[in-house]
Design a protein that fits this description.
Layout lengths: L5 H24 L9 H17 L3 H17 L4 H26 L4 E4 L6 E3 H27 L2 H10 L4 H30 L7 H32 L16 H20 L2
Antiparallel strand pairs: 1-2
Helix pairs in contact: 1-7, 2-5, 2-9, 3-5, 4-5, 6-7, 7-8
């Protein structure tokens, strides 16, 4: 917890969340490999790579796909340090906890035993855990590249181009927008509370403030959702999201799509 107490640490968390969102928007506007492709090509191409990573059963193939993902990230002006902090370490911590039991529970050739008991590490268990972690790391890296290098509205329009139901697209759009709106509102609430608080808020008092703020924030979100819905209806909204930019396929886009499909298909075939 930060030195300023519960309120200060909460405000720092909100600020960091908004800062990360701003960085993602800046990356999407840069001139890079993925940014130069049509959003529809990015969606279908990176989804193909994710599918190839999930279907591959060989660690070498998944490792090659991970190397491809890192190469695409560098060519798309996405910093490796950002991927390490925001993606790889988080995924490693989460997936590692899930994969850890497989090292001991998977039957096979023992590598090490503990106190001569039944608990032992096997070669097959290590391979299984490594494959699981490598798959998840690679798939999440490709997915993160799509989100970082493509404005969210373009992702949604590309999904509609592939006939995803407009209700699902609308839910994704509103959820994305409300997350940042609620984070900003919560930050303003905590900042207002902190400006009226003398000294540090500790223990039970901080938890009570957090619970009350969460209740007020929920009430505000419900009220705001009704107002937004009525405002959208009064302006002619009937369920379809429209943006001003149009998508146009060029020769470079067809080449990129062919490269993604070829790489994904070849990886899935070799790694089967």
């Amino acid at each position: 917890m930060a030195r300023g107490g519960f309120l200060a640490s909460t405000m720092i968390g909100f600020t960091r969340a908004l800062a990360r969102a701003m960085v993602s928007e800046q990356i999407a506007r840069q001139a890079g490999l993925l940014q130069s492709l049509d959003p529809r090509v990015r969606v279908i191409g990176l989804f193909t790579m994710v599918l190839a990573a999930v279907l591959s059963r060989k660690i070498a193939v998944v490792g090659a796909l991970f190397f491809v993902a890192v190469t695409i990230a560098i060519l798309s002006k996405v910093g490796v340090g950002m991927l390490v902090k925001r993606v790889w370490l988080v995924v490693l911590g989460f997936t590692g906890v899930i994969a850890l039991p497989a090292i001991f529970l998977t039957p096979g050739d023992p590598v090490a035993a503990f106190a001569g008991g039944p608990l032992r590490i096997t070669v097959q268990g290590v391979e299984t855990a490594t494959l699981l972690i490598a798959r998840v790391e690679t798939a999440v890296t490709f997915t993160s590249l799509l989100v970082l290098c493509t404005p969210w509205t373009h992702v949604l329009k590309a999904l509609r181009a592939f006939r995803l139901p407009q209700e699902a697209v609308m839910m994704l759009a509103m959820t994305h927008r409300y997350i940042f709106l609620l984070v900003e509102t919560a930050g303003q609430m905590f900042e207002s509370r902190q400006s009226r608080t003398v000294g540090l808020v500790k223990g039970a008092a901080g938890r009570r403030i957090a619970a009350r703020s969460a209740g007020v924030l929920l009430s505000k979100s419900i009220e705001l959702s009704n107002e937004v819905y009525l405002a959208m209806q009064s302006r002619g909204f009937r369920g379809e999201i429209r943006i001003l930019s149009d998508f146009h396929m060029r020769s470079w886009d067809y080449l990129g799509l062919a490269a993604f499909l070829a790489a994904g298909s070849l990886s899935a075939w070799i790694g089967r």
